[in-house]
Amino acid sequence: MIIGAAALASCSVSVPDPAVTTPAPAPSVLATPTVTPGHDADAVAAKDLPLSAGGTLAAGVPVEISDGLREAPGWKLVQENIQGQSSYVRKDGCKVTARLSLNQGALAVAGNDRASTEALFAYVDPSIEPASLKSETLRWGGDNDKPRRKVEVLAFNARPAADGTSFSVLARMFASAGSSVYVSAACPSPAALATAKADVANYLPLIPPGN
Known about the structure:
By secondary structure, the protein is an alpha+beta fold. The chain is built from four helices and nine strands; from the N terminus they run ααββββαββββαβ. The strands form two sheets. It has a seven-stranded antiparallel sheet. The protein has a two-stranded antiparallel sheet with strand order 1-9. Strand 3 (85-90) and strand 4 form a beta hairpin. The protein is globular, with a radius of gyration of 16 Å. The protein starts with a helix and ends with a strand.
């Protein structure tokens, strides 16, 4: 289903996959280690991951996403890993939906996570122009005993509606890994949206593949 920009401003988004996929679980802990000969996953996980560094990930090993927002103050889980998607609501009316998709080769631009992520946005809503996407960051890795790292994503921040309702989408396609993460947040006001996105950045880290 393709969702127009007007709809983006008022609701959360269920992201269609370009091919039939088997959704992966969204763990609140680090992903099960995966052995990839010749690849140092620990070294990749220990550094920030800008869009330009997507090629440092192992081919075919998905990046995952935490479900830690369920434990954040004021939030509760309302949908858990339905076709790779989980949803959360906050007592002030904010809603966050996070989706992990696998087997995304049909959208990926080899060696270029920025172009791949732009293609993901265009697939969800062709009216979203690449120039309207802004660079933002999420947390990279869920361990609390190490310095915080960041992973670069692209964000579409819709203009607030007349009643103040505000909406934002943060997404990244990991071309080498073959997976994508798509997080939408909708709130009653711009100020509430800003705090919701801060909670997302803190409690929904993206999980690097293990060694």
